[in-house]
Every structure is written in structure tokens, then in C-alpha cells.
Amino acid sequence: MKASKFLMATALTAVAGLGANSASAQSMTLCWAAWDPANALVELSKDFEAQSGIDMEFEFVPWPNFADRMLNELNSNGTLCDLLIGDSQWIGGAAENGNYVKLNDFFTAEGISMDDFIPATVTGYAEWPKGTPNYWALPAYADVVGWTYRRDWFERPELQAEFKEKYGYDLGVPASLEQLKDIATFFQGREIDGKTVYGAAIYTERGSEGITMGVTNALYNYGFEYGNPENPYKELDGYVNSEGAVAGLEYYKALYDAGAAPGSSNWYMGENIDAYKSGQVALQMNFAFIWPGVNADPNVGGDRTGYFANPPGPAGQFAQLGGQGISVVANTDNMDGALAYIKWFAQADVQAKWTEMGGASAMRSVVEAPGFSDAQPYNQAFLDSMAIVKDFWAEPSYASLLLPMQSRVHNYVIAGQGTAKEALDGLVKDWVEVFEDEGLR
Amino acid sequence: MARRVRGLSDRAIAWLFVGPSIVLLLAVNIFPLIWTINLSFTNFKANRLRDVEYIGLRNYERILTDTDTWNSMQATAHFLFWTIFFQVLIGFALAYLINKKFKGNDLWTTIIVLPMMLSPAVVGNFWTFLYQPQIGLFNYVVEFFTGIDSSSFSMIGDVNLAPWSIVIVDTWMWTPFVMLICLAGLRSIPDSIYEAAECDRASKWRQFWTLTVPMVLPFLMLAVLFRGIENFKMFDLVVQLTGGGPGSLTTLTSIDLKREAFEKWRTGYASAYAVILFVTVFGLASIYVKALNKVKER
Known about the structure:
The complex is a heterodimer of chains A (441) and B (298). With 441 residues, chain A is an alpha/beta fold. Chain A is 49% helix and 14% strand. Chain A folds into two domains: 26-143 and 322-390, Periplasmic binding protein-like II (D-Maltodextrin-Binding Protein, domain 2); 145-320 and 397-437, D-Maltodextrin-Binding Protein, domain 2. In chain A, helix 10 packs across helix 19 (398-413) and helix 19 packs antiparallel against helix 20. The longest helix of chain A has 24 residues, at 2-25. The N and C termini of chain A lie far apart (71 Å). By secondary structure, chain B is an all-alpha fold. Chain B is built from twelve helices and no strands. Chain B has helices spanning 10-39, 58-64, 67-99, 105-113, 120-130, 137-146, 162-187, 191-199, 204-232, 236-241, 253-262, 267-297. In chain B, helix 3 (67-99) packs parallel to helix 7 and helix 3 runs antiparallel to helix 9. The relative contact order of chain B is 0.13. Chain A binds chain B through residues 67-68, 71-72, 74-75, 93, 96-98, 196, 205-208, 261-266, 280, 396-397, 399-400, 403, 407, 410-412, 414-417, 437, and chain B through 43, 46-49, 68, 128, 131-134, 136, 151-152, 154, 156-159, 239, 242-249, 251, 259, 262-266.
């Protein structure tokens, strides 16, 4: 009797186990940040589900916790994600620690060519080491920091006249970062339609990566370099803290002091969107992913808003790269399904549909298609911005490089402690220590 | 007959009962502690595959000579001292008031303890709105009473105000906890003692200082101990409120430690940091508990 019960229990367990295996082979989890494009991807992925018979599940984490949650997942060899659309800076660590699957052979076998994608996105989202043809992701979502402005305010004749009289040139899309600061200062504390408005919403967030993603748009354009391009790890002094870099940091502080909304000492994407959509600011720094939402907004959308790429500074015109690539997590128990998804996603028609649904394809056939630049009011600004991108370190130790930058820059720009030179000298010291720890110096 | 149960000695039975607890304690407390101490002498990074090297006291040396660490210690000390100071002061005053019998006593008690029932993350989040210079209620109230323009100052963005902004929120949230403990203390004092004091013609002021305060003191010290330990590891509320900024002015040690351990993934370094904090808290708490026991013995 006992033996028969034991056998039955064993059989049931085995059947249940088989069932579980069978279910997991038919479903797959894609992990990404919780934001509008992720919702578009859910819709887009229904086509994949219909074609492949694989159920797609999604794990979306809000941006402020995205890095913590996903890097913990990768570092603990978790099995939550089969596919991960991870931040561009994670690629070095994920590649070297074996968290992502190298995709070169797969791309070759499936005829997927990186030449089909915007070069900056390939470098930023897929390559490790940078500048080498070693691919760990497929460019999935092209993004970059740019600006939106209140075109309806800019076009008011009385404001135009006052601005021209004060600054000697026309109020319009700024031709330089200095002009952008003039405009922000001009609008700061101004009364418009009975409401006090302010100059600009810029990135100042302390806790994750916010202020770094903002300040780099000034630093690059004033001459900041991550190190000697020939020898980046060993020669930081004179590049990170060059005269131009110091001027760039001083510029960002001046912009914050003169033109940022009061209380914006810890603002990132969400806060900037809120400030702009609620009519508090004339200018908004933000990643381009928000532009479709701004365009559709009943208060500030349509003709009331204009878009432009980060303006040039004395050392050139650059913009901070955002965006992500899609990678296969090495720990997946559904490798075939995950690769099938990448293959499906890399098709030109899927990429075109992805852009139509609210995604941002990095595929050249999509963004270089005739009519793309005029299809949406922000597309030209997007193309202009993608042509001038630079990215933060993507080294395995990127977080160790990011945190001191957050601290040093916030300390100077927001807390007003010390000088720009001291902040950047301190940053050199911190980064040297990180590279020494990593054995790169 | 009573000494033995199915052949097991009393000692064996005792071990049988306490054994699982001891095993659990070893597994979840003692082993991780020993492991952490071990890791603190290494350059281990939990997200890297490279070999782990023992580097002696290097991590401890770096932590103790790092100005950022001392800054966060200083920020923590400021936060600890002032939150406990205000919470004890206001908590005791509230308890003293609530202890008097008046109409609606229970309702007021419930209203006062509401803040401590909220999640710290939620509290941190909504205080960011209260502190908003343009729309925040806090700035508006300050403007109402002082005439200072509400949009002219930012509680969480100003270097001088930010350390106080976290003190205010923590005090708002946890003063009720101190109040409840004090209330328990006040209600444990028998009325007969006050009646005797009245017979001896002791003034209310004298009764307060010679009866109420000494008899509530052990409770108050217990509240200080609880709040001290809690605030030493304060994390969520401050992260939500200021993110540790502006600069690093509100980066408390727990925030600093978390960034070292789970953002930079310097596991060895963070272990050493954790050991230093553990020794500090353990040392201070031990001294404090001895003092508490002495007060109780009086």
C-alpha cells in the first residue's frame, strides 16, 4: 500500500516536472525599464508570439531602480531574464563577467549586419571592447539627450523684442550653449499668462546617474575628454580636468544658478517632464524618448513645442548618448527562443513598425528612409543629435566611475562647494584609484 | 520518571529545543558575520570572476583615511543627534499631554501615531512634494509665518537646509513612537505616589522633576536606544528625499555602504566598512545598555 502511494507520488511529481519544463520552453521573459517604449514593445512583441508560438513575459523596472535590480540579477546569475535591454554602460561588465552571450557567430549565421545600424549605436550599445567588432547586443532603442522648448512663448512678439534688446540677437533655437543660458536666464522668474515660469529643467539628480547625464552635455562641448584617447586609463590629468572641462563645469553651474527652476536640485527625467508639461519652464533637457509624449501632450504638444540638438560649445558639438541594446542573458534556459527573438527584432520591417509604435529604431534603413526626418516634428532633432553622441565609460567598473562623478559634480554644481577645478581634480584622483584597483594602470 | 522522556536526558531535551534556534542563529547571524570579517581582508568583488587576494588591513586603512567616509559619519552623527533630541523632547511633551484625561484623548492618540504607520519610502516621496518651493505646503507655511518668499529657498537643495530637512521628516515620522514609549512609562507610575507627594505639599514642578522624570527615564532611554539603532541604519527615507545630496551632505553611512557594496560592487571594501559600523554600533549600544541597567537599578 505504502509502496503504491510512493510510486504514485513519484509519478505525479515527474509529470508535474515535465509540465513545468514544457511550459518554460514556451515562454520567455524580457527585462527592461518601465517606461512608454516598453509598453510599445509589449504590443510589438505580439507579432513575435504569433509567429513563434512563444509566450513573451515582461519584467519592467522603474528607471531609478532599473540598474540596481538588473545588475543584481546579472551578478547573482539569476534566471529571471532571458533577454535584457540593458543600459549602454553595462556592456563592459556584462561581457567580461559572462552575463551576456556574444552574438558574433549568431549574427554571421543569420546575416545580421551591424553596418545596418547607426554606427554610434553599434559602438555604444553592442561593442565591447569599444571600437572592436565584438558584439554583445543588438541596438534596440536609440536615444540621446536633446532639448525641447516652448515655441509658443518664443514666438511672442513682445518677448522677442525684449530679448533682442537685451541680448542683441533673435530669440530662437540657441546657436550655442551660451545662448541657451541667455534664454534660460531671460525666462527665469518671468510672468507669462499670469503664472511665474522659469528658464530650464536640467538634470541634477544625485542618487543614480542624473547629473552626470546632464553635465556631460556641457563638459564635452567645452573640451572635456575621458582621458588621452591614445591611453585613456593612464592619462586622465589634463583631459578630465582640462581648462575646457573646468569651463564646461562652471557653465553648467551658471546655467543651474541662473536659469533652473527653484527646487530642482534633484531632478531627472520624470521631474523634467513634469515641469515642462505643467508649463513651469521654457526649456527642457531630456532624453529624446520623451519627445513623442511631449508632442501628443494637450498642454504643450503640437506647435507649442520645438526640438533641437544640444547646442555647440567652444570645443564642438556633442550630446550624451542614451539608449540600449538587447542582449541574450547567458543564464537563459531558452537560448533558442531568445536568439529567435533577436533575429525577428533585427528585421527591417519589424524595426520600421517598432518606430511607428513609439520605439526608436537604430536601423539605418528606418532613420535614413526618405520622409523620416519630416514624419514627426522631432525627427530632425533626433537625427542631428544621434550624429553627435558621446557616451560615459562603459568599463566593467563603470559604476565605480559614475558614483564619484555624481558626488563631485553635485557637490560643486548644486551644493556650491569648492571650485570646478577642485571638483575635477578630485574626480581624476577617484578615477585613478578605480583604474589602479582594476589593474589598468 | 519526570527526568527522562523516552530515554532522553534533560540535557538532551534541552538541546533538542534550543538546537534549532542555535543552528538558525549560527546560519543567519554568526556565519555571515564571520564571513564578512573574512571578506573585509580581501579585494573581493561579487560581480567579478577574478581571483580573490588577501590584502591585510588595506581596506580598513583606506576607509579610515577617506574624507568621504568621515563626511558621511559626520552627516550620520548630525542626523542621529538632532533626530533623537527632537523626538525625545517632543515625544515626551506629547506623551505628557496625552496622559492627561481629556475628551477625545484616544482620537488624538490615533491621529498622532499615524505618521509612524506609513512606509518610509512613501514618506520620503511625499515630503519631496511638501518641500517643493513652488507648490510645497512646507514652504508655503514658512512663508505664511515668516514672510520669506516660498520659492526663494529649497529645503532639499540648499547646503544649509538639507541636513535639517531629513531631521524634520524623521522627527515628524518617529516622534509618535517615542511618545508611545513615554506614555507607557507615564501610565506605569502609580497614582498613589503622586497622592503621597501631594500630602507632602510637593509642588507640581517638584513632582515632575523628582517623580515623573526619574520614573520615565528608563523608558525614555529605551526609546533613545531603539531610535538610535534605527537611525544609524537609516536609508530608505533619506534616499527618497534627497538621494544623499546636495553633493554628499546627506549621504549617511548606510547609503555610502550600500553604494560601495551594491553599486560599485567593492565587496571586500564594503565588508570592512560594515565591520567598522558594526563595531561602532555594538560598542556604543553596549555602553548605553550598561547605563540603562544602572538607571533601572536605582
